[in-house]
Design a protein that fits this description.
single chain; 183 residues; alpha+beta; 3-stranded antiparallel beta sheet; 21% helix
C-alpha cells in the first residue's frame, strides 16, 4: 500500500523513542549526484534511500478512524509488552544513545500525560536501500507507522489504531496519584 497517498497521514520516523540520530547520519556516501539533497548538502541529506519494512502496511481501518474522530479514545494495552520502553532495563531506560528517548524523557511524557504509543504491530524498516544497490540495516527502535495528524494517532501495520503503552499508562497514573497526595 502506498501510504504516501493517504490524506492527513504522515510517516513517523521516530516517535518518542526511535533512533537517536537522523538515519541519514548512518548512510554511507554512495553517489555524488543522485539527488538534489546530496548535491546541495552532502550524503547526510540524500533522499534516495528507501525503507524495506518488516510488515506490509494494510489500508487504514476507516471505521476505527471515524470512531476516533467522533471522540472514542484509543485502547490502552492491558499489560506491558516484553520490550516496553518503560521497563527498567530497556534501551531507553538504560540510556542507550542510539535511542531518542531516555528515562527522563519517558518520565516527562508520563508527567505531562503526553500520549505514548505501544510499538506492537507497527512496521519497522529492516533495511534501507539506495538505487545504487547499497544497503544499510534498519534500527531496532525505528518504528514507522502512518500517523493521522488530525487525530494524533498512529496506525499498526494491520490498519488498526495503535494502543497506548501500558507502561506509560501505569507511570502516568502513579504520577497523577502522587500529585493528588502531595500538599
Amino acid at each position: 500500500m502506498d501510504t504516501d497517498k493517504l490524506p492527513a497521514l504522515v510517516h513517523m520516523a521516530a516517535f518518542a523513542c526511535g533512533p537517536g540520530a537522523d538515519l541519514a547520519d548512518g548512510f554511507p556516501d554512495v553517489s555524488d549526484g543522485c539527488c538534489l539533497g546530496r548535491v546541495e548538502d552532502g550524503p547526510a541529506s540524500c533522499t534516495c534511500w528507501r525503507p524495506v519494512y518488516d510488515l506490509e502496511q494494510q489500508p487504514i481501518d476507516e471505521h476505527a478512524r471515524q470512531l476516533l474522530a467522533d471522540g472514542i479514545q484509543p485502547n490502552t494495552r492491558t499489560q506491558m509488552c516484553g520490550d516496553c520502553a518503560y521497563r527498567p532495563h530497556s534501551p531507553e531506560m538504560s540510556g542507550d544513545p542510539t535511542y531518542a528517548g531516555d528515562a527522563d524523557h519517558l518520565e516527562q511524557l508520563a508527567r505531562d500525560a503526553w500520549r505514548f504509543w505501544c510499538h506492537q504491530g507497527m512496521r519497522i524498516p529492516v533495511k534501507w536501500v539506495h538505487p545504487t544497490g547499497a544497503e544499510v540495516p534498519g534500527h531496532a527502535g525505528s518504528y514507522q507507522p502512518p500517523m493521522d495528524t488530525r487525530l494524533g494517532v498512529p496506525f499498526r501495520a494491520d490498519g488498526t489504531p495503535a494502543e497506548l503503552c501500558a507502561g506509560w499508562d501505569a507511570r502516568r497514573r502513579a504520577v497523577a496519584h502522587q500529585e493528588t497526595r502531595t500538599p
